Amino acid sequence: QQQSTGQYRTHIPAHLAQQLRQREQEQEQQDQMMLQHEQSQQQGHGSLVLKIQENGISVQEVAPQQPGQSPDQLTEGGEGGGRGRDVDNANNNNINNNNNVDDSRFDVPTDQPSQNGPNGLNSNNNNNRGGTEVLYQDGGNGQVPGGGQVIGGVAGAGLLNVSDIFSTTASVDFDAKLRSILNCHDRDYEPYIGQRGDFWVLKNYVRAEHGELRCHESITYTTHADYTFLDNLIPLLERWNAPVSLAMHAPGTDFQPTLNAIKYLRECLAESHLVRQFVTFHIYFSSKHIPKNVPKYEKVLEPPYNCSLPAPYFNVSSSQLYKTAKKLLYPVNVGRNIARDAAMTHFILASDIELYPNPGLVHKFLEMIARNEPVLQRKNPRVFPLSIFEVDSTSPVPRDKTELQELLRSGKAISFHKRVCSSCHGVPKSKEWIAANETDDLGVFHIGKRVGYFVHWEPIYIGTHADPHYDERLSWEGKSDKMTQGYALCVLDYDFHILDNAFLVHKPGIKVLKKDPKRAMLAAKTNQLIKKIIYPELQVMYGSRKGCAV
């Protein structure tokens, strides 16, 4: 039950999505029911509470508050309950009374939010962060009860199956609350052939079976690769278990092995159902290196791949690619932007395919957004960076923070690129983050800025479509490919909401600095391009801010 509930958070299967759309068509009826319920509540009836528990969802009825009765007395038998905890498991400092956060973890002063959060959502239930969590209380009074009688005709202890959530009359649910907070718009999922600068783009060329997605219902992992990196896709999916938008660079004769690799991943592995369900492939190539034949999208998977053959990417190095033979640079930021722009969800994690997230991140993040705590109501634009680590080649990829801490203590894990460019990926308050114990939910550990020691920080984060794009003139070989975007975030005064129990781990194997004269020469040329052309453009387009640098 826990697994199915978590999967509901990351992706709604097609038949359930259809029920959800039907439910939206009945919204007027639900509004009428809400009105009737409010009237009945005024006559002394209780309010309904939708809760998430470890093994499912429950609906509870709570007696109306009587004059002089405190919120924590609204439990069965009048006992106190519903006590929560702050982000760091410390005391909540009376958030219910004044909505003010007094927390030394946040260097940046926290503005006092209004009584109601964005879109009029009451934030008085922010301290309810224990194992049982209120997602929606239809009484609208902001109280967090600790008990109550389970109602709604649900068997057992009042737990709902995922399918039951569409038939319950528990009023507005988790899905509706997210939709209200984000106020995002849905995007199309149609195949499209177009041009992006010098590149042809086959958008949504091989589509995932999840079909159209609502903008609020998940997070999309957006990434890029050539086909030699596709061995990372299965371990990524096993941990992400949510939509992936993958832009494949496939110029010239790299095109056909790229298609073969996609077919192999979709058809020939025990985990192929994950690829079919979640991964949408886009392909791009330079107009000077068009493949000889590009099948129409409806024919791209024909004929099926011969699964008795090895994986097309098995034992293939980058030196064997058409790209390498033609001395082409890898257009990393073109791929990043293609994958990002094609994502249908409001939230996106623009990352690299070799970086694996800790499991359960998607639904925990959306639950955090739904709580809409005061720290999330700040006026500045924001992104949510993830701490990144490397593990040695003999170690398994840790699945949670506790396992990660054990590897760090034993020296089998280190911070990302510690031996290559530690300042590029150093995260503010990283020592405190590592020392802090793991908690069950997800929250903001610290709010940082890209200034001071972190002025060259290249964070990987959960953001949105509103964030600045990556400069497509920069290549992987020339390095510094995310620096200009980081500068734009700094000038725009972004807050970096560092998440407490979320992290990425690179494919096993610790990187060391290697001398590469050719790449060093390209890096020098890139630095000149940034200094003389891109940086002045950024100053014109975004302005400047003290402490910000490329």
TrEMBL record:
Transmembrane annotation, as ranges: none
Keyword Transferase found: yes
A single MF term (Gene Ontology): transferase activity
Chain positions covered by the region annotation Disordered: 1-45, 62-141
Keywords, alphabetical: Transferase
Protein origin, superkingdom: Eukaryota
Extent of Low complexity compositional bias: 30-45, 89-100, 116-131
UniProt entry tagged with the keyword Lyase: no
Protein name, UniProt field: Putative glycosyltransferase
